[in-house]
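Lab channel / #folding
Pinned by the channel admin:
"Please post every new chain as: sequence first, then the structure tokens as a reply. Keep commentary short and put observations after the output so the thread stays searchable."

First post following the new format, from NK:
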Amino acid sequence: TGSSHIREKDGMWAVLAWMSVLAKANSDPSKPLVGIQEIVEGHWAKYGRHFYVRYDYEAVDSAAAEEVMETIRGHFEEIAKSSDKGIMFGGLKCNSIEEFLYVDPVDDSITSKQGLVLSFVGGARAIFRLSGTGSEGATIRLYLESYEDEVDKQSQNPQEVLLPLAAAALEASNLAALTGRESPTVIT
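Reply from TO:
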């Protein structure tokens, strides 16, 4: 925008939030200093850890990106008809696929086709979304998520933990064959 306010405030809000958490954790100056890692690991030990990774496939041909989404939609009926309510992809059982939409809380307008959620046995999820914000073509975003409650597994690298889920999601979408992309442009 052309206004004079500060842009991209999320990072500053995150810093302020962590400063508040650190101040609360270190309110007693007679005790040893508690750091972010200790706070995070204590939180994981109590509540479990969610592993997240996002794969971005940028500047994908728009028609190919739509074909990826249609390939996933093609599994809706297959799951509904399966006797055990699931399909195996990459060694993981996908037990539901749903398309999500956004309902505006102010005017109740509905925006459909906001993404596809593949849910797997055990609670892991892969979410595919298209974004047209790039300078050319479409961006396919693949969000990967898995929960771990076992403390001894919580310090693992999220990218390594989520590799089997990524493989299953990529198999379900046939992304590599449809787009010619063997790997994402960006992994965050």
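NK: The CA atoms of residues 105 and 172 lie 33 Å apart.
TO: also worth noting, Helices lie at 10-25, 36-47, 62-73, 75-81, 158-161, 163-173, 175-179.
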